[in-house]
Design brief:
The structure is a single chain. Strand 8 and strand 9 form a beta hairpin. The strands form eight sheets. A four-stranded antiparallel beta sheet has the order 1-32-31-30, with no helix packed on it. It has two domains: 87 residues; 367 residues, Methylamine Dehydrogenase, Chain H (7 Propeller), CATH 2.130.10.10. The protein is built from eleven helices and 32 strands. The protein is α+β, with helices and mostly antiparallel strands and 585 residues long. Keywords: Nucleus, Repeat, rRNA processing, WD repeat.
């Protein structure tokens, strides 16, 4: 094209993508024939405009354009598709805005539509789960002379679900699909953050506590003299164990009017005696320890219903399992030896239940516990000159780390929630603060009015420390100030409150999950149990109820969210109480 030739300005290209409100209204009124005519006009305008622009391009540019975008017809078709897609999107958006502006309340939407909106589809579904039959699974594991299951057409998936519900009760809340409009108040993950969550709801009132006696959990009393009562870590199940070598599981259900519970299973173990029973760290197993006559560790699988007996090397005098410590992360189980190996601590694998290693100490082992962070195992014990020692063992390598010698015989101990400090009490009435990182005693306080400390407990929030003694007195301290003053030379701290409701040795101190209730009990006298209101620093007046005899308290536990309280006494009974202030289990 010559430079002198004047090029006409192309007619304005009317974009099919930019749509004003006026064009929207016009297009809604156009008929099918009108829309077709409009598209033809736009195509002709676009083609004319493209030919004028192409006159300035070289042959190479045109060939490259055809290779990338195709010919003229293909390019027009591509833009038409994009324009149609955008028109459709804007039309849907306009309709949704019209619906919002129409003022239709959500309650007026039909129930079926609301349900469809709230239903969530599973991320992944295995089609084989629906096809697999119970007989196929059983026969796959049947060998030799064992009788096969013939003709069973039941769904294996339904069988497993019923099996789970028979052990743990109904499906856990986290496994249920929740609607979009459901409240988050009952979310189990949120309810575990008790320090922040409880501050938003009403505080537990002082004075009288509303405590409803449900019944004895073990109404048949087949467990014998009770040794343990414990609630499941996450399910609505309670465990009761006794000297009859029987462990019973009870499902506890909360309803609007009352609580319903029933025995789901009773397991009798092939042992001469039972010394301890506890849930595993993940809650899928029950660990049962035999005594001097039967030194085996029994493991009951709650899902399969099978019992496994753990045998250990014959050259080792293994634990009598009077006390079982389970590492918080579930990796190890610990027991102490007897006889010539009373000074030994045995590590058992939490998964395979096989013996791993033995740590031999200089003195007899009496008690032990893991730190909340699982890094340390603390062991106490010994006689004579060794009664005032605490031994630190690595939770990972199972090797002895160091021994801290205190000034008094150790009676009770506990870790702080952060695992940085170990607090010990015992003869002499002192509170020893041991730095777990330095493995040395950094401070010693005089427990006010105490001669022999017998129990000690941290509140879950970490702000309070309760210390009980042999006179039945319980002192409550501000734990933060107690630990922050370890480097100073301040005088002995004064307790925030001195509780004198008991008159015999304090054996049990237990805070509930929100640190609002402190339960204290003594096994030396009948009815020696009290519930203390932490915020007001007063005891609940109506518990124990007048005229009621609860016997001597041997074990006590709160449920996961403090909805229930249960304690075992010397009369072979595990009493169950409902605390209606806490709606959840």
């Amino acid at each position: 094209m010559s430079a002198n030739k004047e090029v006409e300005d192309p007619p304005p290209l009317e974009s099919s993508f930019v749509k004003t409100e006026e064009k929207k209204k016009k297009k809604k009124k156009l008929t099918k024939a009108g829309r077709k005519k409009l598209r033809q006009e736009q195509t002709e305008t676009f083609s004319k405009h493209r030919r004028i622009i192409a006159s300035d391009k070289t042959a190479g540019d045109l060939q490259l354009e055809r290779d990338l975008f195709g010919g003229e017809a293909e390019l027009v078709e591509t833009f038409e598709k994009k324009a149609a897609a955008k028109r459709e999107f804007q039309q849907v958006d306009d309709e949704s805005e019209d619906d919002d502006e129409s003022g239709i309340a959500e309650d007026e939407i039909p129930e079926k539509k609301r349900k469809k909106k709230n239903i969530k589809k599973p991320v992944w579904v295995d089609e084989d789960d629906e096809k697999t039959e119970l007989g196929q699974v059983v026969n796959a594991y049947t060998r030799g002379k064992h009788q096969k299951l013939e003709g069973s057409k039941h769904s294996y998936k339904n069988y497993v679900e019923k099996r789970f519900e028979s052990v743990y009760g109904s499906s856990p809340d986290w496994a249920k699909v929740k609607a979009d409009d459901a409240k988050d108040e009952d979310d189990p993950l949120l309810m575990r953050s008790t320090v922040y969550l409880d501050s938003k709801r009403d505080a537990l009132p002082a004075g009288d506590i509303r405590l409803e006696f449900c019944a004895e959990l073990n109404s048949e009393q087949i467990e014998g003299s009770l040794q343990a009562v414990q609630f499941h870590p996450w399910s609505q199940v309670a465990l009761v164990a006794g000297t009859a070598v029987v462990v019973s599981l009870y499902q506890v259900t909360v309803t609007e009017t009352n609580c319903v519970f029933h025995a789901t299973r009773s397991i009798r173990f092939k042992s001469r005696e039972l010394r301890s029973a506890t849930f595993s760290a993940n809650g899928n197993e029950i660990l049962v320890g035999g005594g001097m006559k039967s030194r085996n560790l029994f493991v009951f699988d709650m899902l399969s219903g099978e019992t496994k007996t753990c045998f250990f090397p014959k050259d080792r005098q293994f634990p009598c399992w009077q006390h079982i410590a389970v590492q918080p992360d579930g990796e190890f189980i610990v027991g102490k030896g007897y006889g010539d190996e009373e000074n030994c601590v045995h590590f058992i694998s939490g998964s395979s239940k096989q013996w791993i290693s033995t740590v031999r100490l200089s003195d007899t082992v009496k008690a032990f516990c893991f730190s909340p962070c699982s890094n340390y195992l603390l062991v106490t014990g010994g006689y004579g000159d060794e009664e005032n020692c605490v031994h630190f063992i690595s939770g990972s390598s199972k090797q002895w780390i160091s021994t801290v010698r205190l000034s008094d015989t150790v009676k009770a101990f506990c870790f702080s929630p952060c695992s940085n400090y170990l607090l010990v009490t015992g003869d002499g009435g002192y509170i020893h603060v041991v730095d777990a990182r330095l493995r040395r005693c950094v401070k010693r306080y005089n427990d006010s009015g105490s001669l022999v400390g017998t129990a000690i407990a941290f509140s879950p929030c970490g702000n309070l420390l309760a210390v009980g003694n042999d006179s039945g007195v319980v002192n409550i301290y501000n734990a933060e100030s107690l630990l922050n003053d370890v480097s100073s030379k301040n005088m002995d701290p004064e307790p925030m409150k001195t509780i004198m409701n008991l008159v015999t040795t304090v054996d049990i101190l237990k805070f509930n999950h929100s640190s609002e209730i402190l339960a204290m009990a003594s096994s030396r006298k009948e009815n020696a149990v009290k519930l203390w209101h932490v915020r007001s620093r007063t005891a609940f007046k109506n518990f124990p109820a007048p005229g009621k005899n609860y016997g001597k308290i041997m074990a006590l536990d709160f449920s996961l969210h403090s909805g229930f309280l249960s304690f075992a006494n010397n009369k072979w009974k595990a009493k169950l109480f409902r605390i209606p202030f806490y709606p959840s289990f």
